[in-house]
Amino acid sequence: MINISNVSHQIGTSVILDDICLEIPSNGITAIIGPNGAGKSTLVNLIARQAALQNGRIAIDDLDLSSTATEALALKMALVSQSVGVASRIRVKELIAFGRWPHNKGVLRETDKNVINLALERFDLVELQNRFLDQISGGQRQRAFIAMAFAQETDWMLLDEPLNNLDMFHARALMQELRSLTDHGNKGIVMVIHDVNYAARWSDNCIGLQSGKLIFSGPTNEVLTPKNIKDLFKIEVSRVSCGSQQLFDHY
Amino acid sequence: MANRQIWLLVAGLLLSSMIYLLWGLSGNISFILELRSKKLLTLIAVGGAIGVATILFQTISANRILTPAIMGFDALYILLQTLFVFILGGMSIALLPNSVVFMGTSGMMVICATILYQFLLKKDGQDLHVLILVGVIFGLFFRSITSFMQRLIDPSEFAMIQSSMFASFSSVDGFSLIISCILILTCLAVIFKHSRLLDVLALGREMAVSLGVSYIAHQRYFLIIISLLVCISTALVGPITFLGLLVSAITYHLAPKFKHAQLVSISFLLGALFLVLGQTAFERVLRLQSTLSIVIEFIGGTLFLYLVIRGRLK
């Protein structure tokens, strides 16, 4: 469980996050939604210790971020961030191998190779494994970074807008893959999503942020209602039933 | 396959060293050989140190255009030299043994650089671009102070400073050289020990932190090593600004994999090779009618332009 209590964050004089208190349950996919500038990425970055905590407290499975060694946290959670620009010229397989760093400190063992091969297969990268990162498309690169986080073998995976750059096929494949990771691998997944329908279809829990404030949080089927979505995005949506599935028409 | 480039460079360095040592050998052979081998060692140590320092700096600043010279090191070096002459007077500097002057200058430079970085990097979230901007401004500031002081001192004392403002490999004394070589070798040992960590740092701050590497602490650690390397080489022979950029550009081009164990080896060998070749050309072909830095900057500049025009650099 990720425990966030009284977290506020400011950049200069502008308030990015305002007194956020919430709990993210250990299993399942938690989607963070909200309009641009709501503080979604900041929240994910604070959980992933990318920025220093200014106020409040964050604990991940009872490990307090401020008092736990960063090496220990790297075995606990992996981050796939939004701006993935790598300056160096490295191959897909080498990138995924970096995911094993918290376990092996750069010396590849047999188990590491197995995990890397598994990651290549699960994220459909076997044919691309020897390509350089600047020789593949944005979507393929995105998948390579997610495969790297997978190779880190952590209890938690944090993804900041992982569906960016992905086509319909690969977006769906990624969500299915994440679903199976949390259903069969007991991983907790926290992701920032823009499309409410992806959140409705795939997530177990949903968090709504707006202008740095928590608007709602809870099980997706309870909190993702037309009223809440209207509060969050200021647009009218209607609920559409699609088989057993609840989706939202916002076009 | 990774080692092919390295062995070729080792062979090239050995060959050019032999040419440097043996070309035109006549007269008092043992005296000339001793003189030349001392110079050769200086060239290799300084060239290698500058090459390695530039690669490290580019890794931790995630930028392939910047060099430690941008941080104002050469300017600081000349400022310190000027300060020594200004405060102590030209005669007392001339009377002091070279090794004392060398230890004093490099020690002061390491202290100044370390204080600067500790101060600038203390705050979390302050990124290296701010640091670099500050470096540029400091460089300008150091240069202005230097030229102000140079206006105040005696013209004959100014001539003493002027000789230290251009790279010169002919006036290095043995003791300083040995100390420098030991320090450079220590730095290299530390770098090789952490070469895999450098690979992770090269992924950038976000990914390094996510992989459990305390980025800021390591950045500071390597900045101190970089400043040590640049200080030693600058204090030994004076500023050579262009060499690092040239070496790093070619290193990335030659290295088959982006692994720092390879990058550091290749950049060391390349830096050394360039200086040995440059000095050979300077002494034997141009008959000392120029300074080495001009030779290096000419060859380097031409090659650099070629690389830029061919689109090999990003």
SS content category of chain A:
alpha/beta
User: Counting H and I runs of at least 4 residues, what is the number of helices of chain A?
Assistant: 10
Show the largest interface.
A-B, 31 and 24 residues
Written as H for each helix and E for each strand, in order along the chain, the element string of chain A is: EEEHEEHEHHHHEHEHEEHHEE
Report on the structure:
The complex is a heterodimer of chains A (251) and B (314). Chain A has 251 residues and is α/β, with parallel strands linked by helices. Chain A is 35% helix and 29% strand. Chain A is built from ten helices and twelve strands. Chain A has a six-stranded mixed beta sheet with strand order 6-7-8-3-9-10, sandwiched between helices. Chain A has a four-stranded antiparallel beta sheet with strand order 2-1-4-5, with helices on one face. The mean pLDDT of chain A is 87. In chain B, α3 (73-88) packs parallel to α6 and α12 (242-254) packs across α14. The model of chain B has no long low-confidence stretch (mean pLDDT 80). Chain B has 314 residues and is an all-alpha fold. Chain B has helices at residues 2-22, 29-61, 73-88, 90-95, 98-121, 128-152, 155-164, 174-193, 195-201, 205-210, 215-237, 242-254, 260-285, 292-310. Chain B is 79% helix and 0% strand. Chain B is built from 14 helices and no strands.
Could you give a quick summary of the protein structure above?
The complex is a heterodimer of chains A (251) and B (314). In chain A, helix 3 runs parallel beside helix 6 and helix 5 runs antiparallel to helix 6.
Sum up the structure in keywords:
heterodimer; A: 251 residues; alpha/beta; four-stranded antiparallel β-sheet; 10 helices; 35% helix; 29% strand; B: 314 residues; mainly alpha; 0% strand; globular
